[in-house]
Structure formats: structure tokens, C-alpha cells
């Protein structure tokens, strides 16, 4: 390869790299200009593609050791609809096991709960100039609980649909990921066995990541 060919080859590489950088430019680059990155636009003002507005994550919920033992997962898919609004859907599954005691003090399986469901939510950043990243939060959650009485083999199933309202504070880690602390109030909470089984109280606290 002579000098002319080498020069053309290096020029081509540099040009390709520059073009690729322009095509993949991220709103995080706005930080170099002293401004926060936009959530739905490129630095040039073009709308971000649908995929780049999506967030994926979730959390672990209902975690308890001992009696009862409980653990749950709650995956989330969220979409940055506007600069201040996030909409999304999520699922949840929680496994809970209760044990009883015999006359000799030994533990035996007593009840097993399988709780599962889904939710749709919307979050709106309502006072960004005063408290950035604080969102009004509303959602509809549907939950079903399957209960098995281990000693008799009897099974029961019931469900509950609940509207929840409250606030979420989101601490961004990157443009498409953050730590979210949510406090909600269940508008459909009744002090009955099913509501106590699913929620425990009308107040719902969550820690999630998306």
C-alpha cells in the first residue's frame, strides 16, 4: 500500500467514525453545554426513536424471612411519552408460605399463597422548577391470589382491582434508568382478608429501578 492509498484509508476511517458519532449522538452530550439532557429529543431537537424512549427494570417486593417466608418480583416497562410524563406497564408475582406448629413444636406447611397480577401507570413531573424528578403517580393494579391449604389440599382463588394514587421520586442514574421511591394510597382498600393479604394496609411503598 503506497502513501496515497494509506492517506485515503485513514481519511475514510476518520470520516466513518465522525459520521457514526453524529448518528449515535446522545442527549447526554448536552451536559457539555451546561444543560440537562433532553428525555425525548436529540441535542439538535429531533425526536428520539421509540426504542430510545423505553425503560426496562423492576424491583423485588414482599421480601420476608421467617414465618411467613415471602419474596416477589415486579418487572416494569416504561415509556418517556413527553419531557415530563412517563407511562408504563408492570407485572408482579409474590410467593408466600406460612407454617404451623404441631403439639411437639415441629413446623409443618400450613398455607401457600401465589399472588400475581399486572398494572398500568402514569407519572407526571408536576413542579420540575422547584422539585425536579418528583412525579405525581397514578395507576390501576389488578391482583389475583391463589391460596392452598397444605393440610387439606383445599384451594381458593380471589382477585382485587385497585386504583392507587401518590407520588414517586426518581433519582436518575442515566437518561434511561433511575432509582424510584414510590408512596401510594389505595383508594379501593377495605379492611377484609383479601385486601390485608394483598396489601396489608391502604398505604403502598415501593422501591424500583427503571
UniProtKB/TrEMBL annotation:
UniProt source species: Spirosoma validum
Region Disordered, annotated ranges: 24-46
Annotated Basic and acidic residues bias: 28-38
Segment forming the signal sequence: 1-21
Keyword Signal on entry: yes
Keywords: Signal
This protein's record includes keyword Signal: yes
Name under which the protein is recorded: Outer membrane protein beta-barrel domain-containing protein
Domain of life: Bacteria
Amino acid at each position: 500500500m503506497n502513501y496515497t492509498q494509506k492517506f485515503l484509508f485513514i481519511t475514510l476511517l476518520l470520516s466513518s467514525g465522525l459520521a457514526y458519532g453524529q448518528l449515535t449522538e446522545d442527549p447526554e452530550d448536552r451536559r457539555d453545554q451546561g444543560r440537562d439532557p433532553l428525555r425525548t429529543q436529540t441535542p439538535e431537537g429531533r425526536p428520539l426513536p421509540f426504542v430510545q424512549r423505553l425503560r426496562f427494570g423492576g424491583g423485588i417486593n414482599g421480601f420476608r424471612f421467617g414465618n411467613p417466608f415471602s419474596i416477589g418480583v415486579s418487572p416494569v416497562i416504561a415509556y418517556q411519552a413527553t419531557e415530563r410524563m412517563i407511562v408504563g406497564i408492570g407485572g408482579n408475582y409474590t410467593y408466600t408460605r406460612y407454617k404451623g406448629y404441631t403439639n411437639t413444636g415441629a413446623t409443618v406447611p400450613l398455607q401457600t399463597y401465589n399472588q400475581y397480577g399486572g398494572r398500568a401507570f402514569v407519572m407526571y413531573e408536576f413542579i420540575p422548577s422547584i422539585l425536579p424528578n418528583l412525579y405525581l403517580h397514578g395507576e390501576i393494579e389488578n391482583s389475583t391470589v391463589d391460596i392452598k391449604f397444605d393440610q387439606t389440599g383445599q384451594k381458593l382463588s380471589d382477585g382485587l382491582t385497585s386504583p392507587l394514587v401518590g407520588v414517586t421520586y426518581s433519582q436518575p442514574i442515566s437518561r434511561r434508568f433511575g432509582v424510584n421511591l414510590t408512596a401510594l394510597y389505595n383508594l379501593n382498600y377495605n379492611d377484609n382478608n383479601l385486601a390485608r393479604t394483598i396489601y396489608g394496609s391502604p398505604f403502598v411503598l415501593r422501591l424500583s429501578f427503571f
